[in-house]
């Protein structure tokens, strides 16, 4: 009876040991399975990366010219309206010209009468001169007819100038476009009294447009004439327009501490219109053959570094890391970066061409974690 009880106890102990071993084996298998982390990777590649500074601005016409009537008369006709395209020299409007046309006729009539008079005087002068050369008339007679001739010639010049002025005034009754462009405003209508102080139209040159941006003091040494600029507007969300910095003010505004810079954009199709709101990226540096990875693959960790003096004399250090996959193992690598441009970053130290960088799942990793690559992609 006692022997049977001992045998029963022995079976019970063996069962417990078997159960413990089974559980331990199951836990070990589960741990091994959990330690293999699924990840996506990208390949570190060489490419071109641009450093840019973002600005905002409004598009303006390359030239915006206000057009006035030089003749203060009533407007009789208007040929164009806001939004119309006009060529250089096109007649935009006409003002009343009746009195000026009459003045032109009178001036022409006076000029013709004076020319007829001059012809008679010159005929007489030629006759007197011949007699004077033959000593048949006195010098005083010759001088008198010469004076008359010279006065008649001078009168002709004055009358020619008067005719030219009258014709110019008549021409000015037609208000013409001094440049090719789009009519952006019209302030007067038919029947209104035109005046040299009131613009009738504004015409904007559209083959090129410009944007003025405000460069802050810390950016002043980075932004330079000739740099490229990329322009985006809401009207054409899928189109990037390219411009160039044409001028920069050499001084800073005392109030805003900014310096205005002007960007010129070629606009042959007239897609860009004055008044459009624009987002501008000025390219301040370009690195070719740079090693590039996605920005989202980088893990940042901050720390404080004591720099001496008071206990508060510290600076924040941002360390950057990525996980590089080799033979199914993810190694944590510290990197140094250069230009950052949107979703891509230049790597200066820490990586080599072709390294497989964890781009998804990196926040679940620690150094030397086993991984399974689910998907491979490219950095660029």
Question: Secondary-structure blueprint of this entry?
Answer:
Layout: H1 2-34, E1 36-43, E2 45-61, E3 64-68, E4 75-78, E5 85-86, E6 91-95, H2 98-133, H3 139-172, E7 174-176, E8 181-186, E9 199-204, E10 208-216, E11 228-233, E12 241-248, E13 258-266, E14 277-294, E15 299-306, E16 314-326, E17 329-341, E18 344-349, E19 356-360, E20 369-378
Parallel strand pairs: 1-20
Antiparallel strand pairs: 1-19, 2-10, 2-14, 3-9, 4-6, 5-8, 6-7, 8-9, 10-13, 11-12, 11-14, 12-13, 14-18, 15-16, 16-17, 17-18, 17-20
Helix pairs in contact: 2-3
Q: Can you walk me through this structure?
A:
This protein has 380 residues and is of the alpha+beta class. The chain has helices at 2-34, 98-133, 139-172; strands at residues 36-43, 45-61, 64-68, 75-78, 85-86, 91-95, 174-176, 181-186, 199-204, 208-216, 228-233, 241-248, 258-266, 277-294, 299-306, 314-326, 329-341, 344-349, 356-360, 369-378. The strands form 3 sheets. The chain has a 6-stranded antiparallel β-barrel. A hairpin with a 2-residue loop joins strand 17 (329-341) and strand 18 (344-349). It starts with a helix and ends with a strand. Residues 1-6 and 25-33 have low confidence and may be disordered.
């Amino acid at each position: 009876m006692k022997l049977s009880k001992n045998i029963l106890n022995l079976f019970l102990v063996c069962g417990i040991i078997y159960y413990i071993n089974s559980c331990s084996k199951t836990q070990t298998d589960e741990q091994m399975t959990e330690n293999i982390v699924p990840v996506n990777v990208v390949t570190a590649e060489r490419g071109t990366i641009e450093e840019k500074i973002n600005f905002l601005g409004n598009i303006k016409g390359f030239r915006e010219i206000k057009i006035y009537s030089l003749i203060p008369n009533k407007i009789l006709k208007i040929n164009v309206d806001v939004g119309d395209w006009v060529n250089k020299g096109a007649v935009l409007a006409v003002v009343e010209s009746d009195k000026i046309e009459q003045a032109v006729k009178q001036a022409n009539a006076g000029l013709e009468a004076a020319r007829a008079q001059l012809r008679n005087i010159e005929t007489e002068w030629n006759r007197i001169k011949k007699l004077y050369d033959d000593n048949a008339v006195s010098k005083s007679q010759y001088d008198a007819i010469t004076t008359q001739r010279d006065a008649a010639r001078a009168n002709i010049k004055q009358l020619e100038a008067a005719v030219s002025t009258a014709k110019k005034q008549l021409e000015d009754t037609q208000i013409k476009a001094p440049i090719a462009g789009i009519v952006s405003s019209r302030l007067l209508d038919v029947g209104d009294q035109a005046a040299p102080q009131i613009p009738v139209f504004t015409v904007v040159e559209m083959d090129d447009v410009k944007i003025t941006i405000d460069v802050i003091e810390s950016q002043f040494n980075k932004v330079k004439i000739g740099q490229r600029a990329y322009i985006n507007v809401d009207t054409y969300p899928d189109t990037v327009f390219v411009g160039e910095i044409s001028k920069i003010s050499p001084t800073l505004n005392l109030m805003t501490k900014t310096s205005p810079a002007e960007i010129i954009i070629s606009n042959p199709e007239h897609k860009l219109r004055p008044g459009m709101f624009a987002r501008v990226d000025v390219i301040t540096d370009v690195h070719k053959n740079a090693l590039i990875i996605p920005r989202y693959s980088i893990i940042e960790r901050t720390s404080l570094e004591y720099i001496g003096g008071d206990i508060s004399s510290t600076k924040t250090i941002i360390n950057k890391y990525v996980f590089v996959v080799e033979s199914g193992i993810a190694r944590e690598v510290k990197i140094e970066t250069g230009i950052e441009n949107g979703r891509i970053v230049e790597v200066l130290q820490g990586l080599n061409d072709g390294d497989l960088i964890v781009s998804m799942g990196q926040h679940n990793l620690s150094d030397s974690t086993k991984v399974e690559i689910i998907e491979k992609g490219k950095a660029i």
